[in-house]
Amino acid sequence: MCYRVECKQCKEYSRGGCGEHLATLYASIDKGKHCMCKSWPGVVVPTEETATEQTPSGGVSTSATTTTGISRFLH
Ligand SMILES: [Zn+2]
Ligand SMILES: [Zn+2]
Predict the structure, then answer these.
(1) Does 2 reside within a domain?
(2) How far is residue 14's CA from residue 33's CA, in Å, rounded to a whole number?
(3) SS3 call for 5
(4) pLDDT of 27
(5) Residue-level pLDDT at 47
(6) What Å distances lie between residue 37 and 9, 57, 66, CA to CA?
(7) Residue 26 is part of which domain span?
(8) Cα of 32 to ligand 2 centre, how many Å?
(9) What is d(CA 64, CA 61) in angstroms, rounded to the nearest whole number?
(10) Residue 15 in domain
(11) Which ligand is nearest to the CA of 37?
């Protein structure tokens, strides 16, 4: 059976043991407490919302370009 160990690098919970119960171990650790220094084979790690909100600066110019294209199309 696998067990949690404290990672010396990030102070979060890493894993020890046979490595065949990582899904159960991962689920037993609180969200945000998982060590990501090593991968968790067989565990579907949920994607955090970090990369989603990166559009404010680029979105304005894109919409302006789209508006120009539409008006040209109508004329
Ligand atoms: Zn195990
Ligand atoms: Zn770590």
Answers:
(1) yes
(2) 9
(3) strand
(4) 95
(5) 73
(6) 8, 31, 42
(7) 1-42
(8) 12
(9) 5
(10) yes
(11) 2
Question: Is 30 contained in some domain?
Answer: yes
Is-contact 10 35, C-beta < 8 A? Answer: yes
Q: From ligand 1's centre to the CA of 35, what distance in Å?
A: 17
CA distance 40 to 33: 13
Single out the residue of 55, 16, 52 nearest to residue 35, CA to CA: 16
pLDDT, tens digit only, all 75 positions of the chain: 999 999 999 999 999 999 999 999 999 999 999 999 988 988 987 676 665 556 666 556 555 556 665 666 666
Single-letter amino acid code for the residue at 40: W
> What is the pairing mode between strands 3-6 and 13-16?
antiparallel
Q: What's the predicted TM-score (pTM) here?
A: 0.59
In the chain, the number of structural domains is: 1
In a domain, 3, yes or no: yes
| Residue 14: strand pairing partners | 5
Q: Residue 14 C-alpha to ligand 1 middle, in angstroms?
A: 13
